Amino acid sequence: QVQLVESGGGLVQPGGSLRLSCAASGTIFSINAGGWYRQAPGKERELVAVITTVGSTNYANSVKGRFTISRDNGKSTLYLQMNSLKPDDTAVYYCNARLGGVLYWGKGTLVTVSS
After folding, report:
1. For 17-40, how does the pLDDT look when each residue is reduced to its tens digit (9 = 90+)?
2. What Å distances lie between residue 67 and 9, 12, 70, 85, 91, CA to CA?
3. What are 55-93's pLDDT values in tens digits?
4. Where are the alpha helices (DSSP H) in 1-115?
5. Number of other CB atoms surrounding residue 25 within 10 Å
6. Which of 25, 27, 50, 106 could anchor a disulfide with 4, C-beta 3.0 to 4.6 Å?
7. What burial class does residue 64 get, using C-beta atoms within 10 Å of its C-beta: 0-12 exposed, 13-18 middle, 19+ buried?
8. Are 36 and 69 in contact (CB under 8 A)?
9. pLDDT band at 101 (very low <50, low <70, confident <90, very high)
């Protein structure tokens, strides 16, 4: 069974940093491209960052300069480095990736930014 599993979420103070990971399992395919999304309470899911097969990246305006998306093909893992976190970054963070032509989503990891 193919799965994407996020990890690295938690409680952090404003200004702090977290690194999220998204690992694929149950598949022979590597994560060549994918994205991170987030959903805050009472809000719709929104795009945070994406990375393409050639390594191009794109970010939501609200996280530009603070978040960095990357991938490790050998480990079939997607990362999101989050710096200078703000309370508005509080949300459940989800990753997605297309593996073998099928789009998969993880179940999410909660990030809470609060003092």
Report:
1. 999 999 998 888 888 899 999 999
2. 14, 15, 10, 9, 14
3. 999 999 999 999 999 998 777 999 999 999 999 999 999
4. none
5. 10
6. 106
7. exposed
8. yes
9. confident
AA identity, residue 6: E
Phi-psi region of 66 (alpha: psi -120 to 50; beta: other; left: phi over 0): alpha
Angstrom distances, CA of residue 42 to CA of 39, 45, 76, 91: 8, 10, 32, 10
Angstrom distance (rounded) from CA 85 to CA 69: 15
User: How many CB atoms neighbour CB 66 within 10 A?
Assistant: 15
Q: Could you tell me whether strands 10-12 and 109-113 are parallel, antiparallel, or unpaired per DSSP bridges?
A: parallel
Mean pLDDT of 4-11: 96
The β-bridge partners of 39 are 92
Phi/psi of residue 85, each to 5°? -65, 145
Residue bearing tokens 């991938």: 71
